[in-house]
Fold this protein.
Amino acid sequence: MSETTPILRMSGISKSFPGVKALQEVHFEVARGEIHALVGENGAGKSTLMKILTGAYRPDSGQIAWHGRPVTIASPSDSQTLGISMIHQELSLLPYLTVGQNIFLGREPQGRLPGFINWQALYAQAQELLERLSLDVKPRAEARELSIAQQQMVEVAKALSLQADLIAMDEPTSSLTDVETEVLFTMMRALKAQGVAIVFISHRLEEVFEITDRVTVLRDGRHIDTRPTSDLTRDKIVELMVGRELGNIYPYHPTEQRDLVLEVSDLCDGRELKNVSFQLHGGEILGIAGLIGAGRTALAETLFGIRPATGGHIKLAGQPSKIRSPKQAIQHGLGFVPEDRKQQGLFLNMAVRENITMSGMGLVTNAGFVDNKKANGLAQKFVEKLDVRTPNLRQNIRNLSGGNQQKVIIARWLTLSPRILILDEPTRGVDVGAKAEIHALMRQLAEQGVGVLMISSELPEVLGVSDRILVMHEGRITGELSRDEATQDQIMVAATGGVENVVK
Amino acid sequence: MAAQTSQFRDYLRRYGLMLSFLLLCLALTLLSDRFLTVNNMVNVLRQSTINGIIAIGMTYVILTAGIDLSVGAILALSAVVTADMLQGGTAVPLAILIGLGIGGAMGLINGLIITKAHVPPFVATLGMMTIARGLTLTYTEGRPITGLPDGFRALGTGSVGPVPVPILLAAATFIIGYILLTRTALGQFIFAIGNNPTAARFAGISVNRTITFVYVLAGALSALAGMILIARLDSAQPTAGTAYEFDAIAAVVVGGTSFAGGQGGLGGTLVGVLIIAVLNNGLNLLNVSSFYQPVVTGVVIAVALLLHRALR
């Protein structure tokens, strides 16, 4: 094996999921001792590619060569055996086990008797690993006592203990402070000097420039380009990331804007939101763009009373509001279509009718008793209005397609005639047809004077549907763009922390 | 063919429980000529009233994906306090109301601990079980309270026409409970919370209040069951109701209500209560040793669960 053989070569990798081509003929190479950035929009295929590398998914086609030799990675343990480790965005340490136990979980050094653990050896080896990373953490400390950054480092120690030659890190800095990030980078450089290759997935382009040697850009499941980082500029990367053309699937008719329905000033939640201020008019669709973790969902949940605000003011139609629960939010004319349909929206073992009428029970009950005629009438009205494809109202919601389930949740809010409707990723996992219907419906609501707040990670959707666009980055609003001036590039720059478009 | 199989499964899912119950009755009728008599039927119903009433509250609780281990102990505490007040000359209706109030109040504490302090229902009600049992023993100094006024004893021993009062009370409770669960917004909220508490909160349902309500209901119904028990025995034992929670849970589970919440209902619980009661009655009629009876009951519960799982 020559020095120039890449440690990893993935070629012609394709992977489809029902209805989606997640990866098409993707080529990806990593050299020994290299820090290689993997960038792309949400849904570009980065995670799928890494899941194939670590054995969580099998590719439909394509080859993987490891140190120049073809290999089959059929399971996570296969990839571990080869020396490939993945550090996920969500940390996976077990909080009540010690650092040492976490590092050697499932691979504890054996004592003299079979089945017994040699604790002395375990903690000694853990200590050695931690020292190698210059990490000031005691091996006997419980994982929950550590800061997020320290937990991240322990994950790295765990990867090293597996004799990893390649460590893939998925957004390792997303929950770190600047100082902690620097510590992580120092460690990454030390690993690199020891010959370990690192795949670095990050939405923060400044970090890509700071730490990586090469950049691979994915877009819509395809490999777009791989170049030395030094040959690239921030704008060039953004262009490569979003370079697709906008189809004409978003017919746009502006609506007449009416009075302010929502004014938010300096809203904070003590965790993710930092002094968010904006206004929403009736008759307007306000798009909120940003990357995952930018605080968009936190904003929606704070407005809807799901999580408490710790600072700032919210005015509804000019009146100061003190919304503390979803119930109060609904009473004030808000509706919220949450991001995760299954976990947060649907009652999966219940019928279409119950799923539609659940928030508007007051409309279909007399003195608390459900009036079947009224309930059926109301549900039927919205099933027809939104063209929900269901054999009947008694159908279990589980049996409907994603698009129709989403329409049912939207219908639930429409029964209440909200003045403000917040939709978080309204078309995620929804087929193209239903997607267009949902977009048309949002426009129709705007025409009726509803203020529509749409969070979306899909740039063409944000650009195609919104009257105005806010961009969030790390809990702040980093850009406000009118429909006419907004471009994908501008949004991506603001969403990755660029400063060119600070509120105009 | 496949369609037929699926239809058959659907049919089994809907009527399988009822069918098993009828088969059990048929078998016992063939095995013992004393089983299918008016006297024995009334006897079975009367014996199932206490478990039945407790199981109604337990169904509500389990539908919210909760559990209430304290029902037996709450039954005992409210029973001894009521008995004591009756002996002290308190008017019968007032004593009953206070007894029911104690049950409801204990349930309220359960509900608040679960919703406000976020203690898992299993742990919260386990604690309440121990506390209520301890309070009962303290209150009675471990001695039974015997000799209750006739007006009160009618709850357990009286009858309206040919129908014993306990059966009437249980039937009324069942009907009210059934209507509440199937015809009201509250009932819908209980199913919604059991299905998906997050979605329920996001949909504007008062999740905490609804959960608290089901524990209050479970507590009050345990107290009602306690009234019937002491009225029948003319005595309030401090150890009354021991392990009743398990009979109630068994009936609910045999009735097909899912421990995961959100699926099931009172119709199944009714059949579950009757299956357990008929089974015990049949085993007695067949002179099966009382040492073996719990074994048989346990096997029936396990088989019922396996069937529910297979058909789901």
User: Anything to note?
Assistant: Chain A touches chain B through 28 residues (CB under 8 Å).
